[in-house]
Amino acid sequence: MPSKALRSRYTTEMPSLLRAVLALPLRALAWLGGQGTRAVAAIAFIAVAVPPLGALLRPYVTEAIFLLLCISFMRVDLVALYGHLRRPALVAAATAWTTIGVPLIFALAAHATGLSTSSPGLALALMLQGMASPMMAAPALAALMGLDAALVLVTLVTSTALVPFTASLYASLFLGGMLSISPTTLGLKLLGILAASLVTATIIRRLVGSDAIQRHKRPIDGLNIIILLVFASAVMGDVATEFLADPLFTIAVALLAFAVYFTLLAATTLIFRRAGTERAFALGLMVSQRNLGLMLAATAGALPATTWLYFALTQFPIHFAPYMLMPIARRLTARTNGSSEAKKAEVHSFVSQERREGTTI
């Protein structure tokens, strides 16, 4: 029989040991979440370098997209959301651009260049890219880069709410028989995925509380990165094989993916530059990051091989661009912050002068 002292020591030390063991995964996730854009860029390398991982994880694309949506909806800052909704002009313009303007331009470009006839799989990929809503991770990336994440978030929410209807409309107008499902089914599936993830996220917020979610921001970031790895591996697992089979075509498709990404980024930044360069750049980042995973989930991955290849190669600019664009974002935010500080100093100087002169303000 263990002595009373030994039993006492066991009962006091065991809970602390258990807490320490349980804290290890949280610490690991927090460390991973702290790696920021470096981890996001590394995901693309890992996904391509380990093809068996992609074969293993491909059946779980829909689940990964659902979890990413849940995490994004769970972290919605309702105060910031309501603040931007009170000034809806910029949000409405950005929503119209990303849900109506972008897919229309993609459709016209695909038909004008004859891509719909010469390469239907690539034309389908571009159309689905244009029809997709922005990535749910866009606000987190914007925050990571010091940009206006609240503006990105509210525009993301409004455009995502519309995408089941706009995607169904554009699919019926431009895709014809390219898809294995009807435009109505596509819209209903998109609506179902978004509604289910929103309900799940709302339940989690009610049970856990927004304060707890904010306190565990870094571990949640780490979990987000792991789920992104699952998605990227599932989509990019065959890139190395495709490159060895046809390197010139694979490189050409990759260059097209980068060109589309940076064209959307530059065009959006120019269109919204009057709202301020920093805000315009944040919107450009959001618009260029299209949620192709949502389209994969809605179509259950029943897409041509060329479409899959393009979707896989779009992950390179999506994962590398935030790391590459970080210096630009820092300069823009520094300029914005410097302008704000200068205005504050000017107001402070004016107030001090008025007080010295005895003027009532």
UniProtKB/TrEMBL annotation:
The alphabetized UniProt keywords are: Membrane, Transmembrane, Transmembrane helix
InterPro entries given in the database record: Na+/solute_symporter_sf
| UniProt keyword DNA-binding, yes or no | no
Classify the source by domain of life.
Bacteria
Locate the transmembrane regions by residue number.
65-82, 89-110, 122-144, 151-174, 186-208, 220-237, 249-272, 292-313
What is the protein's given name?
Answer: Na+-dependent transporter
